[in-house]
Design brief:
single chain; about 300 residues; mainly alpha; two-stranded antiparallel ribbon; about 70% helix
Length: about 300
């Protein structure tokens, strides 16, 4: 009768060396990971976080760069509350944002829906729509200033040809200057947000559209009940980014109108620029920047809460 012998098992390695090797491997992997992300963290810390912390400190001081920063507490914020120019800049920023955000969403989403189809030359049209976003702000402002010229601009010439005898003064009119800036800003930004909406449309399952079509839904019903619900994450991201960028609008207004005529297009970013770099009131300008920062934070938090409530 034969018996099956169990295979010989060698001695187990000691636990301590194995744990040390695993610990050394984890440390090495952690060091490799930190070596990749440390340059980005260092840049963020020195170029973004540190200036922001200094900004918050400067908001409570009176400083003109050349002298010592004197602590004044809440005096700068109290001054903001009674500053008429700050009030105008604040409401102009809200006015611009209320017009720019929905208009840009509608135009960019419409472009995305149109260019999401298999059309001849669709790649060219996508590129043409995106091109204004990467064009120089100065070039855009100069060209649109010529287009909006009250007497010889093509825009008013077209309006006169359509029978409008007294077309708007656009950038020379306190009433029409901000709408003109909104039109140019929307034209410039629509290509970028169109790309985001196109990416979102690629994730919409075609099976849902086919099922809705079989059930008899028309184009508008499929858009409202299928496309828009699937685009909710993209719509939320676009809305948040548009809101923040609208509150921070600066360069286009600076080149096109410089806040004029009068203070018709003066916004918070330009108010901060004037107080800081033109009048050397860096403490006061920092207080206005902190106010703009908290305005963006409050609106963004509100958007997150609203989106969370809708998704629940």
């Amino acid at each position: 009768m034969t018996t099956t012998e169990a295979p010989a098992v060698g001695p187990k390695p000691p636990e301590a060396p194995v744990k040390r090797r695993r610990s050394a491997l984890r440390r090495r992997n952690a060091l490799i990971g930190w070596s990749f992300i440390l340059p980005n963290f260092a840049g963020f810390g020195f170029l973004t976080l540190l200036p922001v912390l200094i900004l918050f400190y400067m908001a409570f001081t009176n400083w003109n760069v050349f002298g010592k920063a004197d602590w004044v507490g809440l005096a700068n914020f109290e001054r903001l509350m009674g500053d008429g120019s700050f009030h105008i800049a604040f409401w102009n920023t809200i006015y611009y944002s209320v017009m720019h955000i929905p208009l840009t969403i509608v135009v960019s989403l419409g472009l995305a829906l149109l260019l999401n189809n298999k059309l001849r030359g669709v790649a060219f049209f996508r590129t043409a729509a995106f091109f204004p976003y990467i064009t120089s702000i100065v070039a855009i402002a100069v060209v649109w200033n010529l287009l909006f010229s009250p007497d010889y601009g093509p825009v008013n010439e077209i309006l006169r040809a359509l029978g409008i005898q007294n077309p708007p003064g656009w950038l020379t009119s306190a009433e029409w200057a901000m709408p003109a800036v909104v039109i140019v800003s929307t034209w410039r930004d629509m290509g970028y947000y169109m790309i985001l909406f196109l990416a979102g449309l690629q994730t919409v399952p075609r099976e849902l559209h086919e099922a809705a079509r079989v059930d008899g839904a028309n184009v508008w019903q499929r858009f409202v009940n299928v496309t828009l619900p699937c685009l909710r994450p993209t719509m939320f991201f676009v809305t948040v980014m548009l809101t923040i960028n609208s509150f921070k609008i600066f360069d286009l207004i600076l080149v096109m109108t410089d806040g004029g005529p009068g203070q018709a297009t003066l916004v918070l970013s330009q108010f901060i620029y004037r107080k800081g770099f033109e009048e050397s009131q860096f403490g006061y300008a920092s207080a206005a920047a902190v106010a703009l920062f908290f305005l963006c934070i409050l609106v963004t938090i509100g958007q997150f809460l609203w989106n969370k409530k809708r998704s629940a």
